[in-house]
Amino acid sequence: MSGDVSNQAHYAHGIEPIDYMRSRFSPEEFRGFLTGNVLKYVSRFQHKDGLKDLEKAQVYLHWLIQQERERLDLPTNDPRDPDVRDWTHLQGRVTEWAQRTFPDSTLNAQLEHIHEELTEVEETPSDEFEWADVLLIFMHAALEQGLTMADLYHACEKKFAIVQKRQWGDPDERGVVHHADRPARAEAEIAGVSE
After folding, report:
1. How far apart are CA 67 and CA 38, in angstroms?
2. Per-residue pLDDT tens over the stretch 87-106
């Protein structure tokens, strides 16, 4: 989005200003800040930056809705409004906390921990909190490897396109189904290149 105020390149090496303000402002101050920005961008869009201003207003409105849902003790991950920015924001918060709490954590330790949590998922597969444990560790591990949730979203879109073009075999003795074609062929087809 051309008006994306949630992922500015010039803030890539430090904390996003919105996250800093959220941590420093009271809930009332933060709500006022968000409301003010929604009003600013909506009121000026016809005279200044047009669609870009409306897109910025949309981002601030989204954050304001999230803030209000938190105030009302409603889930902030309602399926009607989260997007990759929400996941990326959560990933940043999780990683910041994990780096403070587990400063000596390694990728190997994080992967081992994911394996342990997956065992718990096997025991109670309908427990959303067990799945959340896996995702939280995964988000931290991925970001420490330089992969944001936005990166992973786009990679999943591309990989899904590849997976859909593959040929699939029969389930093995564990019930796992593997692709039967050579991965390079399917990936080349997606990229529009022939082997």
Report:
1. 14
2. 888 888 899 999 999 999 99
